[in-house]
Amino acid sequence: MADQLTIRAYSKGIDQTPRKVALVASLVRSRTVADALVILSHTPKRAAQPVIKAIESAKANAVNTHGLDAKTLVISTLSVTAGVRLKRFKPASRGRALPFQKKSANILVEVTGDVKPKKQPVAAKAAKAEEKETK
């Protein structure tokens, strides 16, 4: 069996409430990356786009930086937490100002997969073939 690695990707400051983003994230938790991207691309929620971007970022980190096989990637952790809250005021009647908070979310994606086997150089293969022939 090949080596397994876990790769992370964070997406911080998403301008949506964590509750709405978590609803979409629960659709694809513990699925393969390919299945998750297909499901999210057909999900009619605005919160699907930031989740797609976070999963694609984790996939790119795993494949390009750490050399994992894209076909074996599985979402091991997908968590949505509360981000920074911006305190704002909304005008109301009789000159008042009512406070409210603009909520944001943070997304953590952890992807697990197998390491691709490294290819041997052509010269090394030729040398091994010659050794076998001489024996």
Give a structural overview.
The protein has 135 residues and is of the alpha+beta class. The chain contains four helices and five strands; from the N terminus they run βαααββββα. The protein has a single domain (4-134), classed as Ribosomal protein L22/L17 (Ribosomal Protein L22, Chain A). It has a three-stranded antiparallel beta sheet. It has a two-stranded antiparallel sheet with strand order 3-4. It starts with a strand and ends with a helix.
Entry keywords:
about 140 residues, alpha+beta, Ribosomal Protein L22, Chain A, 3-stranded antiparallel beta sheet, two-stranded antiparallel ribbon, 4 helices, rod-shaped
SSE blueprint and pairings:
Layout: E1 4-14, H1 18-28, H2 33-41, H3 48-65, E2 74-82, E3 86-91, E4 97-102, E5 105-114, H4 122-134
Antiparallel strand pairs: 1-5, 2-5, 3-4
